[in-house]
Write a structure and sequence with these properties.
about 270 residues; alpha+beta; Immunoglobulin-like; 5-stranded mixed sheet; 3-stranded antiparallel sheet; 6 helices; 12 strands
């Protein structure tokens, strides 16, 4: 270098000195000049909340600077779709590399149901560009612990199921009753006795429709009459048919306290 400075070409020496300065500048460690740069991301842990409930927000801060701590001021704001703020708050945290935490915000009790936007923005010294993150959520009232839309949905499904079950039950009971009180077939009984079997059977069936199963209990007490205890079908007549009919009608009249009428089947 001494020889270069003593050369007879001073312009050449100046060029060498300038080159040395440029190399020192461009090849210096980059982190000496790197300014802190912090970015933020946020996400709602739930998409629907009722007035007065807590809205949890997951906040993540990333420091892309030189690794030194940076005091970051975080602003939280909740606005409606027209930009009107219903909540705002601010806090300061120190970020070295990464900071992740959950921020809970209580939705005001008088909040009108609808769509809202939760926004988090950060500010710090020597900030180059704004950093903001946001997401949308729904505020909805609750009925008996359920969100209003869910309550109406489940209520509608319950009503629909109840109607279907009611209709099916109605037709099932009607069919069962029709089968229960359908006239018994006595074609296997000789024609001379068949009319009494049919008369007694129809009388028991008619009384069963009026007073229920007690009609079978009364019929079982008649001497000379044998019936099926479940269906009321006449199984056997061991006494004079006319006597059995008279005692059966008398027993039913005493139970009801009024006259009992009966009719013969069409041949």
């Amino acid at each position: 270098m001494i020889r270069i400075l003593k050369t007879k070409h001073p312009l050449f020496a100046a060029h060498i000195f300038l080159l040395f300065v440029l190399c020192a500048v461009f090849y210096a460690p980059a982190n000496i000049y790197a300014a802190p740069e912090v970015q933020t991301t946020s996400a709602g842990l739930i998409s629907k909340v009722a007035p007065g409930e807590l809205l949890p927000i997951s906040v993540k801060l990333l420091n892309f600077g030189n690794g030194s701590k940076v005091d970051v001021s975080i602003s939280y704001k909740i606005t409606d779709m027209e930009g009107k703020a219903i909540y705002s708050a601010e806090e300061t945290v120190a970020v070295e590399t990464t900071a992740t935490f959950i921020k809970t915000i209580q939705i005001p009790f008088g909040t009108i149901p609808g769509q809202y936007i939760a926004e988090s923005s950060i500010a710090y010294n020597n900030q180059v560009a704004p950093a903001t993150a946001q997401f949308s959520f729904t505020v909805e009232k609750k009925i008996f612990g359920l969100f209003q839309s869910d309550f109406y949905l489940y209520g509608g499904i319950l009503i629909l199921v109840s109607i279907i079950v009611g209709v099916i039950s109605h037709f099932w009971i009607k069919r069962r009753r029709t089968m229960r009180f359908a006239p018994e077939d006595y074609s296997d009984i000789p024609h001379g006795e068949r009319v009494f079997y049919e008369l007694i059977s129809d009388t028991v069936m008619g009384m069963r429709a009026q007073v229920g199963e007690s009609a079978l209990d009364i019929a079982k007490q008649i001497d000379g009459l044998v019936i099926d205890e479940k269906t009321g079908r006449v199984l056997k007549l061991t006494a004079k048919p006319s006597k059995v009919v008279a005692e059966l009608v008398s027993g039913y009249e005493k139970a009801l306290g009024k006259k009992v009428s009966f009719s013969f089947r069409n041949s």
